[in-house]
Design goal:
With about 210 residues, this protein is an alpha/beta fold. The protein has six helices and 14 strands. The chain has one domain: Rossmann fold (3-Layer(aba) Sandwich).
């Protein structure tokens, strides 16, 4: 069973429908006990970082996510769900030197795109919204059957920077090259929305749902 964590910040039904479309058995879960019963878990999310962490704490879901990661079973973070897995974010932070704390599953920080691209360059539109190409390195079970440069759908004003380069699973370009997907052990995360990325996104979700070595 694939659990989709309900902590009050996600587009749950669209993710559930996408998983079901590729043959996965998807259920929306909220109780920590139900989370740990899942074979695989998806942490979705739409909105601001601090709100997301507050909702996770209020629902008792923050510890449930950490406990699930410790089981070694596959977890997938999507959009805000990816960002919450990192150490911290400058979004809604008290100051640039005091970023808001995240779950700390993936070492690194979440920061905002800089609209100012330098002298003579047009200002960058933030949020980054629309279709963009992704590239990955090495053989990845999550991207099996896809083509380098396939387009996926993004909606975000902040991006993740892993502390360790080996945790960068895929990149894309928007004013700069940044991490579009991350991977560490049994944890995967992607900044784009696979449930909104048509056949490419469905292929990724199918791989997550079915691949033995994800």
């Amino acid at each position: 069973m694939i659990g989709i964590l309900d902590y009050g910040m996600g587009n749950l039904r669209s993710v559930q429908k996408a998983i079901e479309r590729v043959g996965g058995d998807a259920h929306i879960v909220a109780n920590p006990e139900d989370v740990l019963r899942c074979d695989r878990l998806i942490l979705p999310g739409v909105g601001a970082f601090a709100d997301g962490m507050a909702h996770l704490q209020e629902h008792g879901a923050a510890q449930a996510v950490l406990d699930f990661v410790a089981t070694g079973k596959p977890l997938l973070g999507i959009c805000l769900g990816m960002q919450l897995l990192f150490d911290s974010s400058t979004e809604d932070a008290p100051s640039p030197d005091s970023p808001a704390a995240g779950l700390g599953v993936l070492p690194g920080i979440v920061t905002r795109f800089d609209e100012d691209q330098g002298e003579g360059k047009p200002r960058l539109k933030v949020p980054h919204m629309g279709w963009n190409q992704i590239r990955w390195s090495g053989d990845s079970a999550l991207f099996a059957g896809l083509n380098q440069g396939d387009n996926v759908y993004f909606v975000h004003g902040y991006y993740c920077t892993p502390s360790r380069p080996e945790h960068v699973a895929a990149t894309t370009d928007y004013g700069q090259t940044f991490c579009a997907a991350a991977h560490r052990d049994n944890v995967w995360a992607m900044q784009f929305h696979p449930e909104k990325s048509q056949h490419v996104g469905l292929g990724i979700l199918k791989n997550f749902a079915q691949a033995r070595d994800v």
